[in-house]
Specification:
The complex is a heterodimer of chains A (596) and B (195). Chain A is built from 9 helices and 35 strands. Chain A is of the alpha+beta class. Chain A has 4 domains: 122 residues, Sandwich (Immunoglobulin-like), CATH 2.60.40; 223 residues, Cathepsin B, Chain A, CATH 3.90.70.10; 82 residues, Immunoglobulins (Immunoglobulin-like), CATH 2.60.40.10; 135 residues, Sandwich (Immunoglobulin-like). With 195 residues, chain B is mainly beta. Chain B has one domain: Immunoglobulin-like. Chain B has 1 helix and 15 strands; from the N terminus they run αβββββββββββββββ. The longest helix of chain B is centred in the N-terminal third of the chain and has 12 residues. Classes of the chains: A alpha+beta (596), B mainly beta (195). At the A-B interface, helix 7 and helix 9 of A face strand 4, strand 7 and strand 8 of B.
């Protein structure tokens, strides 16, 4: 037998109490103990007859007057339908039967008295709305976007959070038609003790109401589609913000109203409680079920078998999957529970709660707006890549990651992870985010992957250039290690490029001297760049304001010369090769159109 | 006057050549040939000393006047550069020989080709700039041979009479001496007449 059922040993306290009440009413009084004039029992209520609704609870109070030092005990008896929470004391609580259509007499007497001295007549009319005919089985599990393997609280005692969150997910589906998963981790991130008795951290045992209280105070439900919403067992305290693992607030559901309703079972019979639970499940209310110190969720029942002993609750747990708990669920026989068992006075072993109401303020319709962030976009081959989508707009959100505009197979989460990148993984990444009202792609994010052992390298040929005003020079960019050799050119200074994306590119100098800088950047990694310093020399060597044959005379004077005026030796060296030679002469004649 | 049938086409080609476009073959003007239609150019040489322009006798009094640039014999020089201005309404600079540019290397500095010397020439608005320099390392002593040749053409509507032509004052002609230093020169011009 499962250890669980050891905790479900039938508690007979309530049954024994009723028997004692009956005994008090029916036992003959001891004449020797009945005082001729002694304490008197009087009603503290204004009326002696009451009409209650089916299932309604009502307190009845009496007072003992004229008693001596020893106050006699008040005993209650009940005839007819309904139930009492106790049979002694000056106050009791009566619960009318759920079905109604009966009468009862509630009587109080002093211990030892021969006859009751105070009685109340109770009438419970029949329920005008008869209980619905319940189906033989109810299964709310399809309301959940369930991944059984992930439904594992691990070493963290946060079953209460798992249970309430699952019930919220089902209510989200029932009320809004939204089938989405909510983040347990987000609850951890907002956790704080609300009373002195609450544990300091969310992995301590807590009541279910703490979850709804904190969610309501925070005002948000964060879905699993939030990039950091995945629950990690033992993940408290949460990872610091510097690690990039704090939970973003987008997307989320804005809470307008959220309450947890507890089913009062303590005056009901087991059969009535079972009927009540079945009714709630039929109304598609998941039941947050506390078994001793553990919370789970009743997500359905199976009463199809003719034998009531085989009727069972379907319980969704948060302890992962096992042979006895496939799909994170198990069956719990209905008749194996003493529904009103108390661990101590007023401490019921089992509680049953459900979400009511859940009211959200949904974001306006429209496609979600998304952005991508990454800790690193420049990677070495073999390193992991992690891209995170942050999405605003109405959840639930679906994702499709794109690379260079093409969908990536299987990459449909809010986080794109590649465990070990290759140079082929470099490119422009974007995410297409969709919700029920539209779809939109983010701006792309460039990822660069360098081949292992081969650092990305970009060089220019020539690495620098000197040329005469009006001249041109072709530059070639040599890009290795990125898998994509495309470059984009830019020019700092005067001059022109024939095509900023051509390789090689032709630079054309202006008519004035100058020192522009030509830069090539890798298209897949703009941070990788190489520059060439260009020196544009004037053809007006003598500085008389005109480039002409007099300057040709100076060039001729420096032609193939190793001595002479250093100024002209340098000035006429138009290609910067350290001498004035044929190339300089041809360039000069060509640029000035002096060819005869 | 008797014109050969091809003469009009020849004249058109010559005009086009003076415009700087294609360069059709230029037939030498034989002295014994009849005077061509339109204006011709006559030239009287300056004194035969120093740097000067002397006419190619065969071209004198023809439409295309070829002038030879000569220098003082015995001067060591590596080249010369100068500017010549004519009235663009009356004259145009033309190739001195078939297949040549505006300047023909005389052969003193390098072989008689443009490639063996540094030769540059350009004409615009009647202003001719020319430079002829040697590429070889060893300087050359000038002799009597022409250093370079240029040519002028009278435009068809050119008025007859003496032609004012000169060396622009702001463009001092120079020669490159044996030590690769620029030296000013005085270029003597003869008398030019549109006839």
């Amino acid at each position: 037998m499962s250890p669980l059922f050891h905790r479900l040993l039938p508690g007979l306290r309530w049954t024994v109490c009723l028997l004692l009440c009956a005994t008090a009413v029916t036992s003959p009084a001891d004449p020797g103990q009945a005082p001729a004039e002694g304490p008197v029992l009087r009603s503290r209520l204004s009326a002696s007859s009451y009409t209650l609704l089916p299932g309604q609870c009502q307190s009845f109070l009496v007072a003992v007057e004229g008693s001596g030092p020893v106050r006699p005990q008040v005993r209650w008896s009940l005839t007819g339908g309904g139930a009492l929470d106790r049979c002694e004391g000056e106050a009791v609580e009566y619960r009318a039967p759920r079905a109604g259509g009966c009468t009862a007499v509630l009587a109080a007497s002093l211990a030892g008295a021969a006859a009751p001295t105070v009685s109340f007549a109770i009438s419970v009319p029949a329920d005008p709305e008869p209980a619905p005919e319940l189906p033989p089985a109810v299964d709310l599990l399809p309301l959940l976007a369930l991944d059984p393997a992930e439904r594992d609280q691990g070493a963290c005692n946060n079953c209460y959070a798992w249970a309430v969150t699952a019930a919220l997910e089902m209510e989200l589906n029932v009320r809004y038609g939204i089938r989405d998963r909510l983040s347990i981790q987000y609850f951890h991130s907002i956790y704080r003790p609300l009373s002195r008795t609450d544990p300091a951290d969310p992995c301590g045992a807590n009541p279910a109401s703490l979850v709804t209280d904190l969610y309501r105070a925070d005002g948000k439900l964060v879905p699993w589609s939030n990039p950091h919403a995945e629950y990690r067992a033992g993940g408290y305290p949460r990872v610091p913000a510097a690690g990039g693992e704090t939970i973003g607030l987008l997307p989320h559901y804005r809470i307008e109203q959220l309450s947890l309703h507890q089913i009062a079972t303590h005056l009901w019979s087991d059969a009535e409680i079972i009927a009540e639970l079945k009714t709630r499940l039929h109304q598609r209310k998941a039941i947050i079920f506390k078994l001793g110190g553990h919370y789970a969720v009743i997500v359905g029942y199976d009463a199809r078998d003719p034998q009531p002993a085989n009727h069972a609750w379907v319980v969704l747990d948060s302890l992962g999957t096992s042979a006895s708990r496939p799909g994170a669920t198990y069956r719990l026989a209905m008749d194996r529970i003493d529904y009103n068992h108390q661990d101590g006075p007023g401490r019921f072993s089992y509680t049953f709660e459900y979400i009511d109401p859940l009211l959200l303020r949904l974001q306006p319709e429209g496609p979600p707006a998304s952005t991508i962030t990454a800790e690193r976009t420049e990677l070495e081959e073999g390193e992991p890549l992690k891209l995170v989508a942050s999405v605003g707009g109405r959840p639930p959100v679906r994702y499709q990651w794109l690379k260079d505009g093409q969908p990536l197979a299987g990459q449909t989460g809010s986080i794109l992870r590649l465990p070990a990148v290759t140079p082929a993984d470099g490119g422009a990444y974007a995410v297409q985010a969709s919700n029920g009202t539209g779809s939109a792609a983010s701006e792309s994010l460039r990822v660069v992957v360098r081949a292992a052992g081969q650092p990305a390298n970009l060089t220019l040929d020539p690495p620098a250039a000197t040329l005469g005003a009006g001249g041109s020079r072709r530059f070639t960019a040599r890009l290795t290690g990125l898998g994509d050799g495309r470059v984009r050119w830019s020019l700092g200074g005067a001059g022109e490029l024939d095509d900023p994306e051509a390789n090689p590119v032709t630079f054309r100098a202006g008519r004035a001297a100058g020192t522009p800088v030509l830069t090539a950047r890798a298209q897949v990694d703009p941070a990788l760049a190489a520059s060439a310093a260009i020196t544009i020399k004037t053809l007006d060597f003598n500085g008389d304001g005109s480039a002409d044959v007099l300057d040709l005379a100076l060039l001729a004077g420096a032609y193939d010369a190793f001595r002479g005026d250093p100024h002209y030796l340098e000035a006429a060296d138009l290609n910067g090769d350290g001498r004035v030679g044929p190339e300089d002469a041809e360039a000069f004649l060509a640029l000035l159109e002096l060819r005869p | 006057m008797i014109l050969r049938p091809a003469a009009p086409l020849f004249l058109l080609g010559l005009l086009a050549a003076c415009g700087g476009a294609s360069q059709p073959p230029v037939a030498p003007a034989p002295a014994a040939q009849a005077r061509p239609a339109g204006p011709v150019l006559g030239y009287q040489n300056p004194p035969a000393t120093g740097f000067r322009l002397e006419v190619d006798p065969a071209s004198n009094h023809t439409r295309r006047l070829v002038l030879h640039l000569k220098g003082p014999g015995g001067l060591t020089a590596r080249g010369v550069a100068c500017f010549l201005q004519v009235d663009p309404a009356r004259l145009a600079w033309c190739p001195p020989a078939a297949g040549a540019g505006l300047v023909r290397n005389g052969g003193t500095w390098g072989l008689a080709s443009a490639q063996s010397a540094l030769i540059g020439a350009k004409a615009a608005q009647g202003l001719l700039q020319l430079g002829v320099f040697q590429r070889e390392a060893q300087p050359i002593k000038l002799g009597s041979a022409p250093l370079a040749s240029i040519a002028l053409e009278a435009l068809p509507e050119a008025a007859q009479g003496p032609v004012e032509w000169n060396l622009p004052g702001d463009r001092q002609p120079v020669y490159l001496d044996g030590e690769r230093q620029l030296q000013p020169l005085t270029l003597a011009l003869g008398t030019l007449t549109v006839e």
